[in-house]
Amino acid sequence: MENKIPVSVIIMTKNEEKNIRKCITSVSEFAEVFVVDSGSTDRTTEIASNMGANVVDFRWNGQYPKKKQWCLDYLPFQHEYVLYVDADEEVTSQLAQEIRTTFRKGTLSNGYFVGFDLVFMNKVLKYGHRMYKLVLLNRHKGKFLDYNDLNASNMWEVEGHYQPQIEGDTAVLKGSMVHYDHDSLFDYFAKHNRYSDWEAVVRSNGAMSNLNESQIFIRTFQKRIFNRIPMKWLVSFLHSYIIKLGFLDGSAGFHYAFARCMYYWQIGIKMKEIEFHQNQQQRMKLESELRKAQEGI
């Protein structure tokens, strides 16, 4: 254990037997690994337990905290810093070594962003939109904020597309993680259909404009601009495929940019649907109040 990286890894799972083995293997240099499972019916927990991970059962009660914050609140960590890794992600050897070196130096930031190499259509995308997530943090200095999203249909127990709020400084690591975005294109589109339901709700109620989460400075600026512009679907395609040179990734780069475009198109029309139902409910409420007033005359 003296040679292990003094960080507790959190892997959140549900029916991930296809991915869990390579995910746990990628974090073998870390001192402690928790697999927090949401009722898997396949061999996920069996494989994780056999590989030496601490398997913890999680059942969401439909309220806050959601899963990531619940882990910070209740897991019996042995270390001050935690690293979130999704089951369909892998920590590269370069990133693990960078984290080891960072801890040996001793001067630590309270949170670290990591860039992701996306595998789409069996190709590692080198260009296009690059995702950064704050996945390594001091658990005493970070918190996932409660968004107003419990009424988002088809969303689940894990926090959506937002970062934790970090008290103090953050930094960006040079190493990357690999993200295998789906088992199949069906899974990819099903997942993003659920996410677009969630994002339509939080954009409609204003929660997406809450920028209290920690972000890379340029990303905060970009989000402020993006939240205000129309035709987000078109802007997202041009950003991924043209501005960020996604066309250099060939057909996979085009299809990824187009899929990202369609994601924001879904959000847009779902927001219109939400607005329609809200107006309809308001109209029915006013008609009901008017009838009651007339009956009282």
Give a written overview of the molecule.
With 297 residues, this protein is α/β, with parallel strands linked by helices. It has one domain (5-296): Spore Coat Polysaccharide Biosynthesis Protein SpsA, Chain A, CATH 3.90.550. The chain contains 8 helices and 11 strands. The chain has helices at residues 20-26, 44-50, 67-74, 93-105, 185-204, 217-228, 232-243, 250-296, and strands at 5-13, 30-37, 54-57, 81-86, 89-91, 111-120, 123-124, 132-138, 142-143, 165-166, 170-180. The strands form 2 sheets. Strands 1, 2, 3, 4, 5, 6, 7, 8 and 11 form a 9-stranded mixed beta sheet that branches. Strand 2, helix 2 and strand 3 form a beta-alpha-beta unit. Pfam families: Glycos_transf_2. GO terms for molecular function: transferase activity. Residues 8-105 form the Glycosyltransferase 2-like domain. It comes from Paenibacillus xylanilyticus.
